[in-house]
């Protein structure tokens, strides 16, 4: 059986099968990309705008990749010197193979490549979704969703290929032990986290800077609509939709997906179920097997995301795909947990995985409740706008604060169930369960920026009112899906960070954190403050990058007088370049904080103080990220609710107040909030990777 595979040991055979599922994901993603590319790209005007957006995307990626390559070279060299070779090895000239450094670079490259595939698919799908809307709503939905599915399947496919391929190489080619190979994979997760920092934080800063810059210049300075083609910053804004909404969230969830699997495998290697040695191997392989079937479930579920002719219920069509994938994973997990794991633990592990999966679905539903205009919280926020901007801001902040309780309550329930049923391994497996359907859930998230750009293309190409109405239906569902996706990303980031923390505590032999120890208490308080510092840095960076964007447009208008008169197209790609440069520069210091502080805390104060720092940052960061994201989403949809004709409609005092709230909310929901979740995971994986260097009390303890 399977004699065509090069590896014949039971473990390697299973890894090869899992790897083949990753290959299947990439193959299906390629098919979806071809299907989208075969669709009509529309009028010459639409194609011209799409070409400018693609050019702008490449300009941004070029700036971003230069910074990332420099970062990879520096950090990769340090990993090779201090983790692969070690200080003692350098002193004796005993240079070791660069396994951890190579794993780090591979993780980063897989994340970069998945983002590149996704963003190219999105820039191809947006103009074709616009053209399809000239025919029917259902066809436009299908084109946009297939573009998003290309992103989702590319992310999970490359993650699985990278992880399983690395294990097979280390165990079968490099003759590294199975357990040691798992430790090396922490470098892979670190590489993914590093790219997520630049893509999520830098991309988020850029996207909001472009949005604010285009809107400010068009509406305030020259009095043209934001999507007017003669506004040079509008191309940068469309690029930002793809950078933040496709590559950004894709890298963020790639990091969570990889981090949860690495944590589960590392903890699985330490389980003591009192049975044969194969039990530990089963505990390591089980998360990979579940993720592999999650890919298959996601592929199957893409075929149910459709609307009937004449139906406008787009959001339900998107949710149907997610619910089907979740149900398929639960059924599959039941049978494979029973088959793979020892009799005394399989049921508990299955419950832990199911608890994480269900918690993820519930967090999505709660995010929809707090941010969708269909429900009471956003309607009440819109009503508060009648009293002016101040009440809009205060009520929006209050909504964000109170909205943190229920998501974290269900997250705590999942953690409690997982730990009670399967210990620390159960917590890690619950994170794997939450992310097991990432292929379809990320497809839904990436769908949003595609239809958002499609709406802009329709305006710029001056298509009919019917086309705009169809795209508005898609955008309405997409806006809600984007908020839901960010909420899910933050919830999964919190659970992934907790799973990585459990792996860190195992590696550091840290069974308790004694808060009567002053160093641990200091770490807890400093960790609690760090997410606020990080969020503040990103918020300031958005303002700076937006001012750079506006300055560039003003320069173009001064040097080329026709650029805003409709007679001459502005240099949109130049706007992208200057804003991207400002965004990447602004990412440097926050990135330094995320890497340097946990290392410094561990060396100076010891593993217990570092554990306190990680716990403090996790608690405050999860609450801060959720509140910012929910407030931002609610402000955005309160504006849309009024623009739909409620409470006075466009131009009313209520509408003006919600415009102020939406401006603040854009910073919250698309830049600072999601960036905090990437910050939490990066700090935790750095601590896990360097855990062997820290003593209990540190140098100053």
Structural account:
The protein is mainly alpha-helical and 701 residues long. It has one domain (10-693). Helices cover 82% and strands 0% of the residues. It is built from 18 helices and no strands. The termini are far apart. Residues 562-570 have low confidence and may be disordered.
The end-to-end distance, rounded to whole angstroms, is: 58 Å
Strand content: under 5%
> Which word captures the global form?
globular
Q: What's the total number of strands?
A: 0
Q: Helical element count?
A: 18
Q: Give the topology string: H per helix, E per strand.
A: HHHHHHHHHHHHHHHHHH
Model regions low in confidence, pLDDT < 50 over at least 5 residues: 562-570
Integer average pLDDT: 87
Number of structural domains: 1
- Work out the helicity level: over 70%
Radius of gyration: 24 Å
- Major β-sheet profile: none
Counting helices, strands and paired strands, the structural category is mainly alpha
Question: What's the gist of this structure?
Answer:
The chain is mostly helical and 701 residues long.
How would you describe this structure in keywords?
mainly alpha
Note the topology.
Layout: H1 10-37, H2 44-92, H3 99-132, H4 137-173, H5 178-221, H6 233-268, H7 278-301, H8 314-340, H9 346-371, H10 376-384, H11 389-402, H12 405-435, H13 438-460, H14 465-507, H15 518-559, H16 572-605, H17 607-643, H18 653-689
Helix pairs in contact: 1-4, 1-7, 2-3, 2-6, 2-16, 3-4, 3-5, 3-6, 3-13, 4-5, 4-6, 4-7, 4-13, 5-6, 5-15, 5-16, 5-18, 6-7, 6-12, 6-13, 6-14, 6-16, 6-18, 7-8, 7-13, 8-9, 9-12, 9-14, 10-11, 10-17, 11-17, 11-18, 12-14, 13-14, 14-17, 14-18, 15-16, 15-17, 15-18, 16-17, ...
